[in-house]
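Reposting from the mailing list since nobody answered there.

I have sequence plus structure tokens for a pair of proteins and want to know whether others read the tokens the same way I do. The first protein:
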Amino acid sequence: MTWLHGATLLQTPAIVFCDVDSLMPVRGKIAPGFDEFIAELEHLAMPIVWVTNRTRLQIDDPRRRLGHNHPFIAEGGCGVYLPEGYFHLRPAKTVRLGRFTCLPVAERQPAATEALEVLSAETGVAVVPLQSLSPRELAQNSGLPAQQAELARHRDFDELFFFVGATEADVRRFTAESANRHWQLRQRGVLWSLAVGANLKLSVRELSKLYARALRSQPKIVGIACEDNVSELLEACDRGFLLVDSATATNASNGARERLPARFREIELDSADVWERIVEALSGKS
């Protein structure tokens, strides 16, 4: 698939916000059919905004390979990244980060680095930030391939770290102090992320306003979330789809798990027609 040079905004019934981390794992293959789904939305002139916990550097190669030329939200709701010239009117309060215009939601680095130092000092809990590690240590402790580990080190907003010799009580104390200061502490696999002001719902809302202003209309805000990011993303959307595995779908049908509100639909990710069903729903055919 070729890289799309520039994207033209046309009237559309919906803007799609898609949680992509589980669909494009760092290790392993892209979810079957996801690339065709992106191409079909492009054909329908329906923007798809990628939502990721990764950095703009980590997401750069997948964007090029899949021809994604729309905005994306990175570092777990820390910032909204706009391709050059995407919106005719430049939003207020933006900064230039790499080749993107960024609408910052969280405070930029070194705010998170300094916040991590404060938390560690005040709680007495030892931590090691990723940026302090050598390339070899970085790959070993992050569990990422060497190249991805190096890209993960360079962050615009949040700070990735791991605890050293911490007990469960230590982690609870650390988490409580972060919450008291209204900082965002979130576990990312074997690592943890600390941000000052990250807010995925606000990121979705602010970008939606830009689309509404540019299009002079109010397209529906549609979310596509995987199970680990369901509440924060879908709560910001008018309607949406939750991608689940077959076991989760069975539990929901048996009443073992709370059902989603009516405006959201569960779809099994491993079903053969998952992307076709979403496209049909987005285009009003179902």
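The second protein, same order (residues first, tokens after):
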Amino acid sequence: MKDISYTDKIVIIDFGSQTTQLIARRIRELGVYCEIISCYETKELRNISSLKGIILSGGPLSITKTSYLGIPKQILNFNKPILGICYGHQLLAKEFGGVVKNYKKSEFGRCDISSNKSSILTKNFFNKEKKTQVWMNHTDVVIKIPKGFQGVASSNDYKYTIIQNLSKKIFGVQFHPELKSRPFTPHEIFISFIDAAIKNKELNS
């Protein structure tokens, strides 16, 4: 584990995922301080200079219900890099005008995905054949991405496994990068997100 710097921080908004603490551990292992807050306490989050990025966790609930756990609009307007994981990925798509539906065919366990577009989030993530293996656990699916978003990767069954909007500094992944889907996975997604949130001059200009 790297020495942790307390001058910058990542905030994880917890939507009830069983692996939220593991997300925090992965971030801290990379030498970045992070805090976890409940999705019910997001109104307390302030747009301060030390806040460098936000991660939206997964969760057990469905985004397709009439009443679903959302996120205050002002957080989406902080102009900070945001990474949505599973439920967080679907939430970002829905909040910006995309379409999420519940499909009977779920993806669970190890899943092969393919790169469709280069991204600062997926640097060193795919192999030479532009493929990799991830860990999935979902039945809700993003079937239409919002205007201004791009599809970065897809699985055999679903088109939008990774999405991005660089101008809004927003990224979404349907899978769980905090879980090891391959032996000795170095968690490239978190490395790239931290680099984008803290070091990337183009993204933070």
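Reply #1 (J.P.):
I read it the same way you do. The chain has a mean pLDDT of 88.
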